[in-house]
Description:
Elements: E1 2-6, H1 26-37, H2 41-46, H3 50-54, H4 56-72, H5 78-82, E2 87-90, H6 94-102, H7 107-126, E3 130-137, H8 140-149, E4 153-159, E5 162-168, H9 169-177, E6 183-187, H10 200-210, E7 222-223, E8 230-231, H11 234-243, H12 251-261, E9 265-268, H13 274-282, E10 287-290, H14 297-307
Parallel strand pairs: 1-2, 1-9, 9-10
Antiparallel strand pairs: 3-5, 3-6, 4-5, 7-8
Helix pairs in contact: 1-4, 4-6, 4-7, 6-7, 7-10, 10-11
Amino acid sequence: MLVFVFPGQGSQSPGFLAPWLELPGVADRLNWASAVVGDDLLAHGTVSDAETLRDTAVAQPLIVAAGLLGLRELITSPTDLAATAGAVAGHSVGELTAAAATGALTPEQALVLVRERGRGMAAAAAVRPTGMSAVLGGDPAEVAAALQEHGLTPANANGGGQTVAAGTLEALAAFAANPPAKARVVPLQVAGAFHTEHMAPAVGALAALAAGIDPGTASVPIAANADGELVTDGQAFLQRLVAQVSRPVRWDLVTEAFARLGVTGLIEVPPAGTLTNLAKRTLKGVDVLALKTPDDLDKARTMITDHGGLAATVTTSEATL
């Protein structure tokens, strides 16, 4: 069974889309996405510097647009996706990419939502200086206790010995100065404490916008960030997307869902690398590929031939949050 995964914020880097513009039609589609979100995604994907890409309102639309562009070189429609993959999942903002890939949302709906999501989260982050840091290694109980002691939230439980701490910059600095034994703390290139109570103002605004959307049914199950549940009902997944802005990402549970499905192959769309590295640690024996440049497309097509075509046979969830 093959799955596609869609990365979240922090996966972007300067110039990562430049190689993709050599493919026919990519620049045109990127210009179209730029018109929808009201920003120059072509420039941001090719020439914008790291500080510009750190801006939440810039990074989130760029990541969703890039994921859809990369996937389209392999899969042209939700129907084709259903004939190829057994399930999909997106990390944080990558859930919007997953929703558009499966047809739960149209590309236009996903781009408008990510535009407003990025703006809302940027505004929430501007209220007080906050951020996020990856915590690598250490005893899980000791890491959890240290986060609580410093008033930090385990915003991402990524599995493979990685937790992402989120909170005020002062608390993160104090935590990094005295980390738990055998734990390494790495600041992330994001401008806010995402998936925490600090993002609560963005939830209401996104919920008001989402209320006017009529979602479709996902062509393949989406493993949800909240709990790893497999969801195909578009309305249920849209509600999860909105709520997830201020709730922790449980990528560890997504990975467990993939393991239960018997996944044998995993492809990460651009800007790829982060989720592939996690899969190497948590899904032993699974064939993984980070689709970073067009040079990786032939490898991806081979993986589709080797692993694709098997749909998930488990019961999916239609519960709402």
